Amino acid sequence: MSSMDIFGYRCKKCGHIHYPNRTLCHKCRHDQFEPTALPKTGRLLTFTHLSALPGDFEVPELALGIVELSGGVRITGQLDIPKPKLGMAVVGEVQVVRRDEYNQYHGMVFKAK
Ligand SMILES: [Zn+2]
């Protein structure tokens, strides 16, 4: 299976992790960051089901959730969970979620932990 990571940006001063990138730290206004692999476990904050997706998605319909990862970073990802519940523990895996002529796009796909 895949061992890819999605990278966040850790403030070199206070350690707060930002995703996506920012120019100034949200907490301390420092401007130096280092890339850090985002944690893969977290808890489901909210979710929604989508259908009638554009043709470049890998699947015909999907559930999208917002997950708060360990450490507090929030990320949107696909859910591979038949009956998602708010607050449930989830674990993510980085996969290709969309592709077009030129690029493929990676994202996290979450399963129940
Ligand atoms: Zn900071």
Description:
The structure is a single chain. The protein has strands at residues 7-11, 17-18, 33-37, 41-50, 62-69, 74-79, 89-99, 104-112. It starts with 6 loop residues before the first strand and ends with a strand. The chain has two domains: 1-38; 39-113, OB fold (Dihydrolipoamide Acetyltransferase, E2P) (Beta Barrel). With 113 residues, the chain is mostly beta strands. It has a five-stranded mixed beta barrel with strand order 4-5-6-8-7. The protein is globular, with a radius of gyration of 15 Å. 0% of the residues lie in helices and 50% in strands. The protein contains no helices and eight strands. Bound molecules: zinc ion (ZN). Zinc ion (ZN) binds at residues 11, 13-14, 16, 25, 27-28, 30.
